[in-house]
Batch of 2 targets.
Target 1
Amino acid sequence: MAHVRPTIRVLRHDLGIPIPPANLPLESVEHPLLDKASHQFADPDIAHERIRAIDDTVMFKVKVQRWRGAVWRDEPSADVKAWLVAGGMREEGSGDDFYSALTAETRAARARYNAEHDKPLITDAYSAHLLPGPDDHDRYRLESATRFALRLNRTIRELVCGSLRDGHEHAADFSGFRLGILIRAEDGHETYVAIRITGSVLRDLVTLILSRMPGCPPEAWFPEVALPERDLLPAEQVWSNLMDPKAAALLLDEE
């Protein structure tokens, strides 16, 4: 289902919900208005009612129980396709008071804009202050980085345990690169680790991957010119280290 994402302002001020940690995407926050918006905009066959009084951009109505909201759609190429940009509750006994108040707010914003700028707006409304801003995009990037780090941690652990069990390379694909891990552990000998990265990756990403390997001294990674059984292919890089046998045994015990 395509989720509608709330702006930070909506979440904090309109819905009264604290901003959650970065490992929880804002579109996953549970609230009746967000749930209704996501269901409504996930189905292309559902007709949407436009807020006609807001004429400087296109916004749509979302209604559930006594909650009312305004959804704005970004460009199709954007990471987030739809945003909840305003929300509130209908007063008991009133019909569309939320949208009347929203209209009044955008018209007051237009008046302020025209008072502060030489070139006046020709629209009746001004809603730019409701749309996602730098804080919203920074939060989205933070969530993406957090998701990647959590997936990287989980995948490295799975590849390490798989290679510890059978002595073969185990690999996984990420966006833009492939990660392989080979571990050779012999009784009475050191536990050799090789990490293969295939693809064009930044040095910072290589450092991040190496730093997440359990039981390996971060300062002891050494670039290799070959894998134990073959030479490197184009766009491959390999780094080797020695793993603490106790850390390896602990990982397998936990598995």
Note: The radius of gyration is 26 Å.
Target 2
Amino acid sequence: MGLKEIRDEIARAETEAGREAGSVTLIAVSKKQPDARVEAVLEEGHRVFGENRVQEAADKWPAFREKFDDIELHIIGPLQTNKVRQAMGLAQAIHSVDRPKLARAIARIAQEEGHCPDLFVQVNTGEEDQKAGVMPGETDAFVEECRGLDLPVRGLMCIPPVDEDPSLHFALLAKIAARNGLAGLSMGMSGDFARAIALGATHVRVGSAIFGERPTRG
């Protein structure tokens, strides 16, 4: 595939779901991709990218920002509290707010810096022990806690279990978001973003289908 094909698929999914054209933001997940591939996608005009690790983002994006205007960077991987300040200096959005300690760290630095990226609360919809995220039953209280800290919570994010129908998890996330008055739904990846769009996704995270498979380390 490639960027154009993914954009076309997103447009088709929007139409089929009765969604407004352009209502879904494509986050091109550039983690571990060679700079040449990332630059090629930038040259095609795409400007919204996702990184898992703050250090990789710090190594990669300042140089690209010198060359390309209006880059919007999203941190989509687990975030350690000692990386919060760096992440907030790099990113326009953080999709992995998943615990009170992290929320408090973001709030403290936002007060000091006078700005804060858009935030998404990560929900562990599959209640998997090995996966980050707030449990579904605890999400309402956590969103309320974040709002009490004056944090700009824009929506929710999930990564469904690999062996389950993702649609069930997308529907659950949409239900939790609706009852909390949250418009943003960060859900859907290369293999299932059309289903996510049908269930209300506002942000889809697509990597290998745009860039190709990540190189293996020798």
Note: The chain has one domain: 3-180+203-208.
